[in-house]
Amino acid sequence: MKRLLIYYGWPSAVPLEVYARYDVVVLGAGLEEPDHPEHEKARAIIEWLPRVAFYGYLDLGMTTSALPPAELHRRTGRWAELGATGLLLDDYGDDYGVTRQRRAVAVANAHAVGLLVCANAWRPEQATGLGRRDALLLESWPLERGGPESSRRQRAKLARWMSRQCGCEVWSVGTGEPYARLLQRSWYAALRRGHAAAGYARPDYQSWYLPEWLG
């Protein structure tokens, strides 16, 4: 199972050796823009660690950022130019006002510039449009803010069904404070479910933590 880090803080705040111990790292919004203070630092980190798959953040929601299609297309291209492997398309589901057509266009934009997609939809059955090398993210699974997420069993079953339909991978990330027992519980739950990648983070994704038993 691949080790997943979702980290929305400034990339230069994390030692390179920490990134190197992960297989997949998701970086935060805005870094794709050349005028961002950490843009070139993010580029250097990506170039220094070719074994790590770096994904860039892009909000697809209509009830959140409501980015027009042209802006989604532009930002997708910026992440590709930065050297990202893929995109984390956040707020991917119907609950954020996202239509099936908007999802399809966003995925097609990414694939057109050689990027893979990880779709964050709370309801896995709404993660439509994904391809065989893409991924579906179960956020706050199986733990949400350190406690059991109430719909975790149903979401896991639906994610497995969706994976069989489109051939995509299932990734998961538990959220809460970095206590060893919670990290272990989240990791081994994902392992038992056969997830392709798993991680654990504080709910705001502004800090990182790598337990020694994952080293």
Notes on the structure:
This protein is of the alpha/beta class and 215 residues long. It is globular. Helices cover 33% and strands 22% of the residues. α3 runs parallel beside α4. The chain has a single domain (2-214), classed as Alpha-Beta Barrel (TIM Barrel). β2, α2 and β3 form a beta-alpha-beta unit. It has helices spanning 16-19, 39-48, 69-82, 100-112, 152-166, 180-193; strands at residues 2-7, 24-27, 53-59, 86-90, 116-120, 135-139, 143-144, 147-148, 169-175, 197-201.
Numbering strands along the chain, what is their spatial order in the largest sheet? 1-2-3-4-5-6-9-10
Radius of gyration: 16 Å
Name the beta content range: 15-25%
Q: What fraction, in percent, of the residue positions are helical?
A: 25-40%
Sketch the major β-sheet: 8 strands, parallel, barrel
CATH topology, anyone? TIM Barrel
* Count of domain modules: 1
Roughly what is the average pLDDT, rounded to an integer?
A: 95
Q: What is the CATH C level class, in words?
A: Alpha Beta
Shape: globular
CATH architecture, please? Alpha-Beta Barrel
Distance between the termini: 13 Å
Our count of helices gives 6
Q: Spell out the helices and strands N to C.
A: EHEHEHEHEEEEHEHE
- Kindly state the number of beta strands: 10
